[in-house]
């Protein structure tokens, strides 16, 4: 692969003055992943109908987008007890321009490789957090005329739904179109400043929503597991394979005939079982599956369209490897379904209250990228499977056409996985998964042979 050479670096600020000031982030902003999430888009050479300059188009439209989404141009600041506040100081975002003698065809099927990391701005977390931009972008021009756009977005400020909202509106502005959905920037919507109403049953969040994932039997910490070498694979499940899985799971004794199991519940159950087999656990090994649940429609009243922030919560399904393997796919899917159903308005609000009163939120923050061994670890014997199945992730057009491919960049966290729809919209799904090198081949074998 030809080297990627950085040519220019810019700081992009909002096109007009914006509100300035600080506000604490909402509780759900402060737990789980608080580092940046990288994705990359690839485009063919712009056609002759596009008369503009790619870099200037991106820079100018990004500046105008930041006027509407001004929190993205701010900076984070640590507060006591593991809290963060957002300083809306309009210091701006990072935008880089690069080029390469490589061609798009050099990326083959666009499976993540170490080269992908060079297409996305890297964040140096050794720097003080108040100096790190919340959004970084890099446009790379290839010898063939093709383009990549890599972005890194702070998960402490937005979740996937809000991140793709921002990218989509950036594209609309670049095309000269008005905003489709105005962002709702009021984080107080998910604050619990008033006393909570009495609930009929005690909150389960304190016991089940925030406890640390289990360790391997015989271990007192996960320090060694975190050090083990990992590898990333992009694995496709065809429509036919998915239909076989769903037919089997919905015919099981665990299925609700009136509802059936969803695509996510089905595939997540299959992945969870295959990982347990590949890892060679003893039957009594506890294992958990972290599930990212969007609460926008689950709280009362529902969050307004365009809410800009984090509105996802981590639900957890728990079992043992022996139970998962011996009881079949329906058992695993039911465990996952029950965990998702538990995320009610009561669960969300009591969880916020629990976090608000907790002494130090670093206990719940996934900050391994900062070199920390604290926070939840969803590597062996656990998994974390995030669904992008309903996110508006495809079709990002800045005026020269939609991408030919988009996807996550490489990540090295054991157990971290993403489930995406196939861009061709043919009913197949894409599983981007990271496992220890020692487990990956066995996992792939089970993933396909056990269908």
UniProtKB/TrEMBL annotation:
Keywords: Acyltransferase, Transferase. InterPro entries: CAT-like_dom_sf, Plant_Fungal_Acyltransferase. One of its GO terms (molecular function) is acyltransferase activity, transferring groups other than amino-acyl groups. This is Spermidine hydroxycinnamoyl transferase-like. Belongs to the plant acyltransferase family. It comes from the Eukaryota.
């Amino acid at each position: 692969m030809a080297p990627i050479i950085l040519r220019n670096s810019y700081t992009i600020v909002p096109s007009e003055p914006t509100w300035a000031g600080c506000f604490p982030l909402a509780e759900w902003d402060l737990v789980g992943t608080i580092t940046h999430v990288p994705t990359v888009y690839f485009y063919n050479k712009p056609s002759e109908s596009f008369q503009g300059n790619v870099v200037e188009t991106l820079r100018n439209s990004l500046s105008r987008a930041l006027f509407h989404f001004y929190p993205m141009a701010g900076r984070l600041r640590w507060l006591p007890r593991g809290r963060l506040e957002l300083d809306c100081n309009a210091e701006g975002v990072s935008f880089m321009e690069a080029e390469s003698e490589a061609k798009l065809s050099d990326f083959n099927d666009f499976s993540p490789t170490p080269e992908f990391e060079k297409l996305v701005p890297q964040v140096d977390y050794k720097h003080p957090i108040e100096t790190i931009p919340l959004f970084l972008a890099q446009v790379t021009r290839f010898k063939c005329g093709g383009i990549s756009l890599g972005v890194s977005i702070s998960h402490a400020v937005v979740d996937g739904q809000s991140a793709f909202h921002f990218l989509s509106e950036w594209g609309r502005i670049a095309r000269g179109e008005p905003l489709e959905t105005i962002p709702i920037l009021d984080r107080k919507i998910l604050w619990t400043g008033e006393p909570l109403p009495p609930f009929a049953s005690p909150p389960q969040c304190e016991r089940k929503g925030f406890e640390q994932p289990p360790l391997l039997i015989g271990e007192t910490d996960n320090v060694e597991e975190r050090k083990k070498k990992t590898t990333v694979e992009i694995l496709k499940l065809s429509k036919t394979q998915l239909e076989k899985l769903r037919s089997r799971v919905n015919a099981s004794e665990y299925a609700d005939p009136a509802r059936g199991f969803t695509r996510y519940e089905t595939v997540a159950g299959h992945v969870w079982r295959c990982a347990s087999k590949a890892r060679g656990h003893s039957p009594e090994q506890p294992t958990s599956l972290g599930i990212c649940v969007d609460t926008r429609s689950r709280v009362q009243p529902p969050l307004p369209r365009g809410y800009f922030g984090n509105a996802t919560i981590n639900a957890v399904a728990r079992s043992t490897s022996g139970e998962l393997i011996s009881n079949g796919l329906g058992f695993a899917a039911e465990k996952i379904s029950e965990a998702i159903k538990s995320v009610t308005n009561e669960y969300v609000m009591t969880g916020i209250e629990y976090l608000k009163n907790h002494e130090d939120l670093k206990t719940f923050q996934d900050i391994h990228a900062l070199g920390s061994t604290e926070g939840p670890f969803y590597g062996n014997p656990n998994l974390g499977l995030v669904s992008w199945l309903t996110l508006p992730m495809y079709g990002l057009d800045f005026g020269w056409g939609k991408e030919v491919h988009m996807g996550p960049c490489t990540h090295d966290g054991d157990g971290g996985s993403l489930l995406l729809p196939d861009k061709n919209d043919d009913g197949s799904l894409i599983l981007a998964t990271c496992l220890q090198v020692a487990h990956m081949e066995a996992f792939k074998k089970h993933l396909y042979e056990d269908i």
